[in-house]
Amino acid sequence: METTPRASFNDLPAEIVAIIVQDAAKPTFTQDEEYELMNLYSTARELCLVSRAFRHIALPIMLHTVLLDSRNMPAFLHALHMQNEYAHTYPALRFEYTPYIRNIWFGERCGGRPSDAHVYSRFTSEPVSDLELIAPVLLSASSLAIEFWCLDLLEYCVELAWGRMDDNIDRGCLPLPWNIKTLTLSRITCDSWDMTRLASGSAFLASITHLIAIPPDERDISSHILFRTMCGVGCQSYAAPLWMEYVPWGSFERLERVSLVFPQVKLPFDIHESSMELKLHAELLTLPGSRLRGRRVPAEVQGSKDVEEGFFFSLKDVDAEVSDEDFISLNDVHVVVSDHPVHFCTESTCLSCLHPDWQKVWASGLQAEGRWVL
User: Fold this and answer.
1) Residue 38 pLDDT more than 70?
2) Residue 144 belongs to a domain
């Protein structure tokens, strides 16, 4: 009996092989399985072991969107140290990560924070710390997602890069030492923003064009649910999160858009039957940044009853009349609803505030243009 000859990459043009490897190495962030059940980058890592040529094709695909938390932070830091070692020992094996990273999620769900302790190379006397290695990686991305209580780490990275700029040249004429334009913060609280106390931190915030807040704080979730249910307002009304009053909006000089996430609460909604962990569709509300810079923060964003298909800010001064400046047309305000439910929680003890659902939402394209893909 004749046997069918096995196909071989050797029989294919190099261009076709490159396309196959690129497609196989690409992480799928919209898969149905839970993140804990699979390694998104496992295929790309295996391809890197096949050959040096495959490694140079797969690594840029894998590095395009990087998710860092306690599960993979140690391995990623080890890889950075390895590249640093290769620079002195095997230059042909060294791969520069920073040019290929576009989006990076940094979270400390269960620890895994980079250490500021210096590690000495086996081949050089140069001490290198985890923070010194991670700083250019975080700052090279155009979109960064980070937990609000980790802003001190971001502040350190920004100050490190800022301090390495030439003091003898007008810094206002130099390109900024970071590429971040979209900043996604998870679980923003009412704490102060210490970054504004430093010139580097102020310059960083001034360069941000899109601020995204996910997931909402449990108090803001409860407030919004109460606002929708107890007040009986329509589906186009939103209670502004409490933390918005504490944001130094004046520091965001180039801010174009602000995106907020709310649980979708359809009336009638029985608040007494809801538990501390909810799985609801989410609404992404995007406002023009110009409406927040130098203005009072609105208490509510409501669907206008007087102007057809419009939104306006209901200011905290309840006796003040709504002026034309407070009105925002639907051309400026965008609301997008997620295709699938997402985990919310209404209790501070609920760990689902950092549920991997939010990584999937962000990695699937939310950080790009305020789109919602889930």
Assistant:
1) no
2) no
pLDDT surpassing 90 at residue 204? yes
Binned at pLDDT 50, 70 and 90, residue 31 comes out as low
What is the count of structural domains for the chain? 1
What pLDDT, on the 0 to 100 scale, is given for residue 3? 62
Specify the DSSP class assigned to residue 293: T
Q: Is residue 254 part of a domain?
A: yes
DSSP structure string for 36-53 = GGS-TTHHHHHHHTT-HH
Regarding pTM above 0.90, the answer is no
In 1-149, at which residue ranges do the beta strands (DSSP E only) sit? Answer: 65-68, 103-106, 118-120, 127-129, 143-147
Amino acid at position 329, single letter:
S
Instruction: Tell me the residue range of the domain where 272 lies.
Output: 209-374
Question: Residue 314: CA atoms inside 13 Å, Cβ hemisphere, count?
Answer: 13
What is the token pair recorded at 191?
């704490």
Tokens of 50: 């096949």
Contact call for residues 188 and 244 (beta carbons, < 8 A): no
Q: State how far the alpha carbon of 110 is from the alpha carbons of 68, 335, 341, in Å.
A: 12, 33, 24
Q: Evaluate whether residue 164 is within a structural domain.
A: no
Q: Is residue 4 part of a domain?
A: no
